[in-house]
Predict the structure of Transcriptional regulator.
Amino acid sequence: MKEHWGGTVEPSGSAPEEITVESLLRELDADASSDEATVRPTELLEDALVSLDADAEGFRFDEDIVKHSLDELLLVLIAARADGTHGKQLMDDLDQRFDARLSPGTVYPRLHDMDAEGTVAVREMVRTKEYTISDDAEAEARVREAMLQHLAIGRFLERALADGDLF
């Protein structure tokens, strides 16, 4: 089988199996356990979708919204791995968990900026760079602030829809 961004393609040319958020979450949990993740971001995502009463099979993230929250998502994904992670793994995580196929030209500059700010530490490896959180308090504060901003907007929209008289 050959992997590609949307699922698995059979070498015989047969149709690929249907890919759902649930199947990706199961697959990602298997991947995360092999990478010794301290927290499984997939479980966090699954819990979030359940708490929103979202249809996990029909739900898809908007790539622009993922890009808007990229720094905070990267911080959570980096923090979730006990021994650090590399950029390719982070891009794979974003693709698999958030339906966002972001280019290295989008992800690496953000990692570089967070390194320059002192929030993320970079360790040069032989053929790659490994990223870890260097300032836990700053990383947590950034993630918390982004969460509050998103929740406030979401609650505003939720109440507008619940009113029933607007649309």
Q: What stands out?
A: The CA atoms of residues 86 and 125 lie 10 Å apart. The radius of gyration is 18 Å. Helices lie at 21-34, 41-51, 63-68, 70-79, 87-98, 104-117, 136-163.
